[in-house]
Amino acid sequence: MTMVKDLPVDDRPRERLMAYGPGILSNAELLAILLGSGSKEKSAMQLAQDILSQHRESGVLALATMSVEELMEYKGIGSAKATLLAAAVELGKRLGLNTTVQKPVVRCPADAADYAMPRLRFQQREHFAIILLNIKHHILSMPIISIGSLTASVVHPREVFKAAVQNSAAAMILVHNHPSGDPSPSKEDLNITRQLMEAGKLMDIPVLDHIVLGDNKYISLKEEGMIQ
């Protein structure tokens, strides 16, 4: 077995990163740096290549959907490496959500979908969140209210409006993902939307829309005329 330390200096991922910057490295090389070491049978580079080769269709994006437990199924990845990889992936997601210092503003459903997509697109269970807005429709935060099964999440109005009140929100947009990749809203989606819209009227925190996310696509219930 060829270990990373046995490779010529110019072929070692860490040395290449230091010499040329991270942009020149392949996905396998970047993953190998995070892994740090492999197993007795495989180097970190070989282990990284094995992981990526088992996910040829999605490639490095597969890491965004893998749990710590799934990562630990690979020989050579223990809890320490698995949690490090999970943390790195989460940082990448958060960086994608914070591309500007100024708070993003929601002018149309696409703005809300663009904000929520990086965080929810790769979730393997249904996540129900709310995009909280101030009076000028700048985004205050997007708390996750409920995490459900592959096909459904349970949403309690009290939790929705508790988060809205705590953040002094003037309005909100409901958003959740469909792990199937198909954003078509279900009957339950429509029912909970109407229920929360009625509660919003009582609380004086209007529910402006409900965005259902699929695989890099979305449906706005407001835009589709499914809610008024």
TrEMBL record:
Residues 105-227 form the MPN domain. One of its GO terms (biological process) is proteolysis. GO terms for molecular function: metal ion binding; metallopeptidase activity. Pfam families: RadC, UPF0758_N. InterPro entries: MPN, RadC_JAB, RuvA_2-like, UPF0758, UPF0758_CS, UPF0758_N. It comes from Anaerovibrio lipolyticus. Belongs to the UPF0758 family. Keywords: Hydrolase, Metal-binding, Metalloprotease, Protease, Zinc. This is DNA repair protein RadC.
